[in-house]
Design brief:
about 300 residues, Rossmann fold, alpha+beta, single chain, 16 strands, 2 domains, six-stranded antiparallel beta sheet
Length: about 300
């Protein structure tokens, strides 16, 4: 099994633990994989490094980083024969969790050596890929404040994030949007926040933001009828208790395609933590089982496509 390994040096875990730059390749080789490391010398940016990795014609591209880095790699690999392996080095690592990967990077690298290949869905909005969720509205503003201080320590940086969050809570206007699911009628909504999820979150006690299926071929839509700290606290409690989907403060639905209409010419969208400004209308769709991934064999039981043996 030929593996190209690409580690994002700006990932938070690597900044805190630089020794992983050497440990992860060593663990993959100990697992019997033929590993070539793609360094920063290969190209000045991530797209160029991805091309350098694919030029080696690997069976698997293993990427170490957060969900945004994984998203960029998936956009390049979707629809092709090269499988994606994930080493979680970010903050949330949502895809890695749903794939059943260990959250410890060294354990995740070891698990890839015993992995199997399966296929999962890829979601898109106006051609931009996301594997986990696409968010519109207030959470984007909050995410931008967080990105501005990424990598900076100290009380001053944290205080700027808190102040930025507070300003976002009180200043972000309501959005007037039209929603058309599949070919149905347009539903008019006012909201400060909404998300489109690639496959649905489960509704079970203690299973917050977990997707048991990654190949169901459906988008899951959630529109907040309100979005203030008290509303968010109630929703999180309901999610932890496992009975959140039918709450009156939340409009939810499932669809294969979604169009979001707005009077604004552009809307700011955050796909798997990556912010972008997209022209309206926003057109969402899903590509069933378009991405091959490498994951632990026991994770196949949660329903993310049939497994292929490694090698």
């Amino acid at each position: 099994m030929r593996v190209a390994l690409l580690l994002n040096p700006r990932a938070g875990t690597l900044i805190d633990r630089p020794e992983l730059l050497g440990r992860i390749p060593a663990i993959l080789r100990e697992a019997g994989l033929d590993v070539t490391v793609i360094t920063a010398n290969a190209a000045p940016d991530l797209p160029g490094q991805l091309e350098a990795a694919l030029a080696l014609r690997p069976d698997v591209l293993v990427v170490g980083g957060g969900d945004g880095t994984i998203r960029s790699a998936a956009a390049r690999l979707a629809g092709g024969s090269v499988a994606l392996g994930v080493v979680p080095l970010g903050t949330l690592n949502l895809l890695a969790r749903d794939l059943g990967m260990p959250m410890e990077p060294e354990a995740a690298a070891a698990a890839l050596g015993q992995g199997v290949i399966r296929a999962i869905d890829v979601a898109e909005v106006n051609g931009e890929v996301f594997l986990c969720q696409s968010v519109i509205g207030l959470p984007n503003r909050m995410g931008l404040h967080r990105e501005r201080v990424r990598g900076r320590g100290g009380l001053a940086a944290r205080w700027r994030v808190v102040l930025g969050f507070a300003r976002a809570w009180w200043r972000h206007p309501m959005l007037r949007l039209g929603l058309r699911m599949d070919d149905g009628p347009v539903l008019r909504v006012w909201t400060r926040a909404m998300s489109v999820v690639n496959n649905a979150y489960t509704e079970a006690p203690g299973q917050m933001f977990h997707r048991p299926r990654l190949d169901a071929g459906l988008l899951s839509l959630h529109v907040a009828r309100d979005f203030d700290p008290w509303w968010l606290a109630k929703l999180l409690v309901a999610m932890a208790a496992g009975h959140w989907r039918k709450r009156p403060e939340l409009l939810s639905g499932e669809t294969e395609t979604l169009a979001i209409l707005s009077r604004n010419r552009h809307l700011r969208v955050m796909n798997d933590g990556e912010a972008m400004l997209l022209e309206t209308p926003l057109r969402y769709s899903i590509r069933p089982r378009a991405l091959r991934v490498l994951a632990p064999p026991e994770a196949v039981a949660i329903g993310a496509g049939p497994a292929e043996p490694l090698g």
